[in-house]
């Protein structure tokens, strides 16, 4: 049987090498095999909530850790160590005998044959959950993809930290003022929560750390530009939050350009429709699209690269394939175009699908997903944050404390919470960021 399947696959993909049907070294048991692609917010919370005795669970991820993406910007700006926002993916599985993790990259799914193809072999499934998240979207601008720095993974964040710190070190060695400025300037593309948080954190680094670390540099000439295409920052939040965030950033001397389109970047000059900005670093937070996998029918993938699923999380047209999180467009009555690409959505969908899979195994009718929107928030820096809730909108120190508490509570792993709390307290009282290391990349 496996040989036949391989032959069929070979016929379908004449040119492409087909990996051996090795089930990734996992022996089939009497339990139905549930394969989960992606150990991000959706996948991890699905596993935690799942009645594991009902299934043989196989979690697949190209990394061996979960990444708490909302705090990546703090790793990028020397505020937190990378370990404190990561969580080993083997940990939630290792107490359960028929649960397995494989660190491989999925290259294709073959839903007609219940197969997942990876760079380590091919695996059969009885149920499949696609939770591969999103990837950075450069909207087809190749030069930006080549030269700008994304922030989607821990290595991206460390890459940004390296580049920022290395540029300051290099600026010390140069006498030409134009080249010096180019090395010290930072452009952030995208005025959503990630762009706003990065701009605030870099501005505070410039204010509190640089004068002590780099007394020989004219810190004032280091400019931080935040570029946003739409008329205001934080376009998905209330006007009040957008205006307050802008005010906070201006207090920190961030140069904000809204209604401005970035047209290109060659690694030295950012071209916008409002003029050029010399900068050796451009951080790209301009957008994401779903991390879809080849193999699903074309009509199932939206223009934003999300997989169409019905309200129960089931991918349209397949009985045993589900999708959750950023990659999924779960269409419900309240969200006919899918839900926002947020951690809270992915977490709720993961927990919801755990219940639905158990119901399915027991022959019960599947439930429909209802997203509970608990609010949105963004922080600019110490005592500067904005919070939008259904009934209240507030900002300032209270919002900042709410932001800190929610992120601490949501961080995965007790040790991570403790280490992060200690780091934040240290940074707050000492105006310091201890992890400003340049690690060779
Ligand atoms: C910088 C940044 C800041 C953010 N800040 C916030 C915030 O403040 N609040 C908020 O609510 N949301 C925030 N988000 C969004 C939030 O992180 C996402 O909505 C959330 O991570 C989605 O969860 P997910 O499980 O769908 O995907 P992810 O958490 O992205 O996980 C996907 C997993 O799939 C794996 N994977 C992908 N492709 C493959 C493949 N081919 N083979 C194997 N494995 C694969 C990845 O390695 C990853 O582990 C932020 C995102 C970023 C990038």
TrEMBL record:
Molecular-function GO terms, alphabetical: NADH dehydrogenase (quinone) (non-electrogenic) activity
The UniProt entry, under Gene3D superfamilies, shows:
3.50.50.100
Give the FAD/NAD(P)-binding domain ranges: 33-350
Keywords, comma-separated and alphabetical = FAD, Flavoprotein, NAD, Oxidoreductase, Transit peptide
Residue intervals of the External alternative NADH-ubiquinone oxidoreductase-like C-terminal domain:
374-428
Key word Oxidoreductase present in the record? Answer: yes
Q: Does this UniProt record's set of keywords contain Iron?
A: no
Alphabetized Pfam families for the sequence? NDH2_C, Pyr_redox_2
Q: What is this protein called?
A: NADH:ubiquinone reductase (non-electrogenic)
Lineage, top ranks = Bacteria, Pseudomonadati, Bacteroidota, Cytophagia, Cytophagales
